Amino acid sequence: MVVIDKKNCHAVPFASFQINPVPEYDEITELIPQLYICGASSLTLNNMNKYNISLIINATTEVPSVRSLGSIPRIKLWLDDTPSTNIYQHFDFISDQIETVISSGGNVLVHCMAGVSRSATICLAFLTKFCCKSLRQAYQLMAQKRPFVRPNIGFWRQLIIYEDEVKNGVTSVNFVRSREDPENVLPDVYLQTFVESCRGWRFSSDKQKFQPILETVSESTEVRA
């Protein structure tokens, strides 16, 4: 039995795979009806049957197509969780695939290693294109269901570019940075979480309060295939 490798257009044998489960990421999360996200430790035949999964999207390089999951159709994207990885090139194709399966009554599972960055980014692209008014709304929906999702900063730059395309020039997420640490930026949708994490020290007399600065995304961040 084989699975099609979309990147190189050749057949890839199924393999056995074992991973040490991480309890926090074990849960399969339903983002909207028929769309699920999880980490690799949840890839069991029992879970596939429980959620009636009809398409698996593997957003990793390191997790093989697992033999024990049988003949469920799947797409492997060969993505590393690094800011320089071009995940943008998959947004339209995979979003359309997810929409096609859901529209026909099927259930889609998107996974990476932990269900935090790569798979979350793919789901955010789909939600932005088909389900939500904006990328910000898509993230808020996702964070309510799976609070620990954290796409890396490079993926956020690519998501903002994609939102600009599918929403006709409108973007909803900016980057912010602390005056104390101007080298590090984060999307402003993370700001509330960041501020809450600082509550333990924000009243200290020798530390300044967090002061965000808006950073616009320049054209130089555009992703090239």
From TrEMBL:
GO terms for cellular component: cytoplasm. Residues 85-147 form the Tyrosine specific protein phosphatases domain. Keywords: Hydrolase, Protein phosphatase. GO terms for molecular function: phosphoprotein phosphatase activity. SMART domains: DSPc (SM00195). InterPro entries: Dual-sp_phosphatase_cat-dom, Dual_spec_Phospatases, Prot-tyrosine_phosphatase-like, Tyr_Pase_AS, Tyr_Pase_dom, TYR_PHOSPHATASE_DUAL_dom. Residues 27-168 form the Tyrosine-protein phosphatase domain. SUPFAM superfamilies: (Phosphotyrosine protein) phosphatases II. Belongs to the protein-tyrosine phosphatase family. Non-receptor class dual specificity subfamily. This is Dual specificity phosphatase, catalytic domain containing protein. The gene is Bm1_50185.
